[in-house]
Structures are given as structure tokens and as C-alpha cells.
Amino acid sequence: MYFFDPHVHMISRVTDDYERMARMGCVGVSEPAFWAGFDRGSVDGFRDYFRQLTEFEPTRAGWSGVQHFTWLCINAKEAENVELSREVIAMIPEFLGNPGVLGIGEIGLNKNTKNECTIFREHVDLAMKTNEQILIHTPHLDDKLKGTRMIIDMLLEDDRVDPNRVLIDHVEEHTVGAAREEGFWCAMTLYPVTKCTPSRAADIIEMYGDDRIMVNSAGDWGPSNPTAVPDFIMEMRRRGHSEKKIKKIVYDNPVEFFSGSDRFEFTPPDTLWETSRAAADTD
Amino acid sequence: MDSQQSAPEVFDQVYLDIRARVLQVAASLDRIDRSEDAETVQEDRRRSLIQQGLELLCRPGLNRAEQIQVIFSDPYQSGWNAPEATE
Questions:
Q1: Tens-digit pLDDT profile for residues B36-77
Q2: For chains A and B, what is the number of CB pairs under 8 angstroms?
Q3: Among residues A94, A128, A122, which one has the least CA distance to residue A107?
């Protein structure tokens, strides 16, 4: 089955991971901007990072036949530095016209601080002024319930925000309901210890349905598995769910949400060969 | 609820997994309790949270996973962003 990993930090993964993902059916990834493992010291550090996300990563993904898309922001972990955050937010529009940039993300909260809230609201303002979609990071562990509710509160403060153009990520049993009730898209991250297991993600699908929801591996610096989405597919099959239902979650829903961006120029895998041939014929 | 399997089918599928995880929890708690200064852990807030989670598991009803998530969560205060609250 073809699948789309809608949130995976490939910059922290080796090229072999792209290859393994492609062999297991991955045809597309979306990579939100995030923490580099250390706090960056200047706006130029972010400018170079955004070049990597918009120039080199799509090329590297293409070596395995995977189509790569991205989101731009300064992440919540670095938002405590308000001055640097504002410089980065002012610089982001330099990249918003680049192919494959789907919007602003992953913005959100980390420790639910006042500075994080300030920078979150300023990112949302940028997204509204530039008509971009938003991808949201919700906090980890003890901070998640409070932080997710705070994020939803801040989004509802702004009349310009269309919930259908916002994806709230890393939802779990105690946060999925609030996000869905307000009409936002949701995603579950499949992490071995600190987020959802494939089994719990399947439970949430059985309880909340398959509309406006997707699963991702978020593969990053910590313990994570870039082929976690196929693990979810196997769990759903083991439970007797239909291929149509599984495909909706791992392929159709991400494609539908990302289609809200004009720069989502995705070639479906069934036509990829014909498209490549047509391009070659015109060369 | 969109489950494709009956309860006995699900139970057959998950029984060994649950058994293994219960054993792992038991062994982990034993390991803490047989280590030096075990009594200090009894004062640790996180040990109390685990105890609350274990007690919740023994109660009947649905949504145990959601309730356990709430036990391990910081409290949320609605209205935190009201103008008078942020001044």
C-alpha cells in the first residue's frame, strides 16, 4: 500500500531511511522545521536550514523516488529567545514562494511559557497575512493536555483562522477530542515510548473515526522509527479493517489536507512513471 | 465504535501482550523496591502518579487510557488567556 508520512524530520535520518521507506510504500513526506539538537545562534543559521529543507532534502528524497514537502518556522523550543524568533519570522517570507513549501510549522508550545505563546501568536499572524496553512506541534508528556488546550484557545482567539487549514499534531487519547470538536485536522505520532504506539493509534481511530486524521513517524533525533506508518497499517489489517479505510488515513487524508496549499504539486504514484516519461520526452 | 472484532477475538489477540506488560510493571516496581534508598521513592510524586494509574486500571469502565493520560498531565485552567488574566 502506498503511504504518505506527513511529519518526519528526514534531516536527522540517513539516506538509507528514505530507501527503506520507499521500499515499504512511502511515496511522499512532509518535513516541518524543528529543533536542530542545539539552539541556533543567528537568523542566518535558520536561513541555511531553510535552504536545506527546500533545496537539498527534496533532491535527496528524489533519489529514492519519494516526493518531499516542507513547513517553515522557528520551533517552540527556541521561542524563548523572542528577539531571534522575531528575526526568523521576518525572514520566513523569503522562502514561502519556493516549491514544496506547504505553510508555517511546526509551531506550537513546548513548556507552555509566556514567550512561547507570544511567538506562537506571531507565527499565526504571519500565516494569516500570507494565507498559509499551519502545522502545529503540541507539547510532550505532562505538558501536552494543558498546552494543547492553550493552543486551541489561542487559535480560537483569531477570527481569521480556518480550522480546516490547521493540523494539530501529536494528539493522544486526552487531546484528540478537543482538537476534533473545534474542526481542526489531527495527526498521531507513532513513537516507541513517549507518544502513540501503532496499537493505541488504531484504538483512537476506532473510537473517533477516520475523518480529518492521519498518522506519522516524526522520525527525529530521539528513539523513533521512520517506518512506523507501515507498522500502523499492519495493526489495522490485523484488526480486520478494510484497505480502503487504511488508505484513507495513511494516504488520502494527508493528500487532501496538503492540497490546501497551492505549492503541493504532488504526482500520484500511479501516474509518476507517465509523468517522468512525458518530462523526458520534452527534454 | 468502529471495531471489526468481537471482544473474545480481541482478548485472544492481546492476552499475552497484556500479561507481558503486567509482568514488566511488576518487575520494575520490584527492582525499585529492592534497591538502596527505596523508601525515598515512596515520596516521589511520580510514584504516586503510577499508583493512581494502577488503581484506575482495576476499575471497570471505558476510557481508561484517556483517564490515565489525565493523571499524568499538568492541570489546565480555562480562561487563562482572558484579558483580565493576562494583565
A1: 999 999 999 999 999 999 999 999 988 999 999 999 999 999
A2: 54
A3: A122
* Chain B: closest CA distance from residue A143 (Å): 6
Count the neighbouring beta carbons within 10 Å of the beta carbon of residue B4.
13
For the four alpha carbons of A73, A247, A171 and A228, in that order, the dihedral sign comes to negative
Give the Å distances, CA to CA, from A136 to A27, A259, A260. Answer: 23, 17, 16
Q: Check residue B36 and report its DSSP letter.
A: T
d(CA B13, CA A238): 9
Question: Is 0.90 topped by the overall pTM?
Answer: yes
Domain boundaries, given as residue ranges, for chain B:
7-71
| Distance (Å) from the alpha carbon of B2 to chain A's nearest alpha carbon | 5
Mean pLDDT of A38-63: 97
Classified by CATH at the fold level, domain A3-276 comes out as: TIM Barrel (3.20.20)
Contact A144, A138 (CB under 8 A): yes
Least CB-CB distance to A174: which of B3, B4, B70? B70
**What is the Cα–Cα distance from A260 to A133, expressed in whole angstroms?**
7
Measured distance CA(A106)–CA(A136) in Å, rounded:
5
Predicted complex ipTM exceeds 0.85: yes
Written as nine digits, the cell of A155 is: 487559535
Backbone φ/ψ region at A170: left (φ over 0), alpha (ψ -120 to 50), beta? left
Query: CB–CB of A205 and B2 under 8 A?
Result: yes
CA-CA distance, A69 to A58, in Å (whole number)?
7
Output the DSSP codes for A21-32.
HHHTTEEEEEEE
- Amino acid (1-letter code) at residue A86: R
**Encoded amino acid at A193, one letter:** V
| Domain positions in chain A | 3-276
Backbone φ/ψ region at A83: left (φ over 0), alpha (ψ -120 to 50), beta: alpha
